[in-house]
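Tokens in:
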């Protein structure tokens, strides 16, 4: 049997024959500093640095420390630099060629991955100013804009590049798709909330409108944040910027925020509802709509008045529709020479015979005062709130007719002048 030690030279010769790269060790990348075999420091097979997907690269970068990411950033910076050097050299020698188009695609791919490394390094406290400046400086397409053909070819090449127009097109489609899905969800949530508030008697119509509107907008805001995060926008940084600017925004919009706070108070305490007859801020009419900023009142002569919520909540609110019943207050005067008992009997008969006047509480009809020109009676029947003006007009009309028929005068202001003749 052949000794195993005698076979070792033969095995070594075969290994060197079939795997000559073992002689070169790690010198492959150095022999071609600007070629396709250049690699970054992530543990990848040679020549696959640009082939790795952005998702996989992000996963490989997560466990790296700040120092390791610094080395990784420099390696990717070298790759980008090599591609830019190749593009510049080839542009000088041959102008626009298919090979130049491929190099631009590789440069864009390398630059995208370089930026991923920069973002990861920044998140772990690294100084990325130098890398950011370099990435921004070489990110522009190196095209001679005076050469229309070269410019068009570069543009069309970017459109069909996997890391260029195709990538951005997919990102836009993904963004619009997510927003559309959340729009459908928001409409469904709005219908559910509207149905739930309609079935409950605990919510006013104003609060129902607010809940329906805010549910739709809340879902859409969440969808927008999800869509932005999906396409690579740093939502956390965006929210941090908004939070930092909130003080300035609040100071600039203090009047609007005051109206907003008053609108919330109106929705919570519900001093009135849509359709109520109110007097607010010197305006009489019916509530047409309440938003978080203003209250819309439609006056009885059909004018639309917008009152800021701060003026509504900060002033006296008179709601004539808050109760189911109201008292109609009227005063009727008769002359001093007329029969007061007969006038009171006529008023009682008119009120008791009206079909819209309530039996409970009982109407109040009393001689109220001896005025300068008349003897005044108060007449106070109770009615349903919706019948207030109809009863008011009917009683006044019938009192005038009955007083005229019974010979009872309705005096007007007058003065007696007494003349004393002096001899």
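Residues out:
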């Amino acid at each position: 049997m052949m000794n195993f030690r005698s076979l070792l030279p033969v095995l070594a010769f075969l290994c060197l024959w079939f795997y000559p790269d073992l002689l070169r060790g790690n010198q492959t990348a150095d022999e071609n500093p600007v070629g396709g075999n250049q690699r970054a420091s992530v543990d990848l097979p040679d020549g696959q640095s640009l082939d790795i997907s952005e998702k996989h690269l992000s996963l490989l970068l997560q466990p790296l420390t700040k120092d390791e990411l610094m080395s990784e950033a420099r390696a990717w910076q070298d790759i980008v630099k090599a591609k830019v050097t190749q593009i510049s050299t080839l542009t000088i020698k041959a102008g626009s060629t298919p090979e130049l188009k491929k190099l631009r695609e590789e440069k864009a791919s390398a630059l995208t991955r370089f930026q991923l490394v920069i973002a990861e390094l920044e998140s772990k406290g690294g100084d990325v100013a130098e890398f950011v400046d370099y990435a921004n400086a070489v990110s522009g397409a190196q095209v001679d804009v005076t050469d229309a053909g070269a410019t068009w070819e570069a543009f069309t090449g970017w459109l069909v590049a996997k890391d260029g127009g195709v990538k951005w097109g997919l990102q836009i489609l993904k963004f619009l798709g997510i927003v559309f899905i959340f729009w459908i969800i928001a409409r469904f949530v709005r219908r559910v909330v509207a149905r739930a508030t309609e079935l409950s008697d605990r919510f006013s119509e104003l609060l129902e409108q607010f809940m329906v509107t805010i549910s739709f907008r809340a879902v859409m805001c969440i969808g927008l944040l999800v869509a932005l995060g999906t396409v690579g926008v740093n939502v956390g940084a965006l929210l941090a910027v908004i939070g930092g600017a909130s003080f300035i925004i609040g100071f600039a919009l203090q009047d609007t925020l005051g109206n907003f706070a008053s609108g919330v108070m109106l929705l919570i305490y519900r001093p009135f509802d849509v359709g109520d007859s109110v007097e607010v801020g010197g305006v009489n009419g019916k509530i047409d709509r309440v938003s978080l900023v203003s209250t819309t009142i439609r006056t009885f002569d059909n004018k639309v008045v917008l009152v800021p919520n701060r003026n509504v909540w900060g002033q006296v609110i008179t709601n004539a529709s808050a109760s189911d019943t109201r008292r109609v207050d009227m005063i009727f005067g008769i002359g001093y020479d007329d029969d007061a008992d007969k006038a009171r009997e006529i008023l009682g008969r008119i009120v008791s015979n009206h079909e819209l006047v309530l039996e409970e509480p009982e109407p109040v009809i009393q001689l109220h005062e001896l005025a300068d020109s008349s003897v005044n009676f108060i007449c106070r029947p109770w009615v349903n709130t919706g019948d207030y003006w109809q009863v008011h007009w009917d009683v006044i009309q019938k009192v005038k007719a009955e007083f005229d028929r019974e010979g009872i005068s309705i005096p007007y202001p007058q003065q007696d002048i007494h003349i004393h003749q002096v001899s």
